[in-house]
TrEMBL record:
InterPro entries: Gar1/Naf1_Cbf5-bd_sf (IPR038664), H/ACA_rnp_Gar1/Naf1 (IPR007504), Transl_B-barrel_sf (IPR009000). Pfam families: Gar1. It comes from the Eukaryota. Residues 1-26 are annotated as: Disordered. Keywords: Nucleus, Ribonucleoprotein, Ribosome biogenesis, RNA-binding, rRNA processing. It comes from Hydatigena taeniaeformis. Required for ribosome biogenesis. Part of a complex which catalyzes pseudouridylation of rRNA. This involves the isomerization of uridine such that the ribose is subsequently attached to C5, instead of the normal N1. Pseudouridine ("psi") residues may serve to stabilize the conformation of rRNAs. It is found in: Nucleus, Nucleolus. The keyword Nucleus applies. GO terms for molecular function: box H/ACA snoRNA binding. Component of the small nucleolar ribonucleoprotein particles containing H/ACA-type snoRNAs (H/ACA snoRNPs). This is H/ACA ribonucleoprotein complex subunit. Residues 1-22 have a biased composition (Gly residues). Belongs to the GAR1 family. The lineage of its organism: Eukaryota, Metazoa, Spiralia, Lophotrochozoa, Platyhelminthes.
Length: 128
């Protein structure tokens, strides 16, 4: 006797279920030798750092942020403010607190985790 959409009998899968994947998205990370200055600490807000964007590019959301010694400190949470004076917030890793950082401290990012301003502006261009 059939089993509805799942088809088959005696426990077979059959039907519309599709294949199984491993569920992991393993991909190679770019080397950390390719980090560059992205911004500097402006101030803190609750458990986040608010940083001035100093790079021509705009960081990806959730991109890892590093210190100059390549220690990961957190991830980009939000990007806000005017285009020429943008800010971004960094959600710190669980083992760090905002008191560890001083105003003006430099923040770094993997250069492959930046979008160019031209690319961002082209998303807003009229399609025709």
């Amino acid at each position: 006797m059939g089993r509805g959409f799942y088809g088959g009998s005696r426990g077979s899968r059959g039907g519309f279920r599709g294949g199984r994947g491993t569920g992991s998205r393993s991909f190679e990370q770019e080397p950390l030798e390719a980090i560059e200055l992205v911004g500097e600490v402006s101030h803190t807000c609750q458990r986040d750092l608010v940083c001035k964007l100093l790079n021509e590019g705009v960081p990806f959301f959730n991109a890892p942020i590093y210190l100059e010694n390549k220690q990961e400190i957190g991830k980009v949470e939000e990007i806000f403010g005017p285009i020429k004076k943008s800010l971004f917030s960094v959600k710190l890793s669980d083992n760090l607190n905002t008191e560890s950082f001083k105003e003006g401290q430099k923040m770094y990012i993997n250069k492959f985790k930046l979008l160019t301003m031209e690319r961002i502006m082209s998303f807003n261009a009229p399609k025709g």
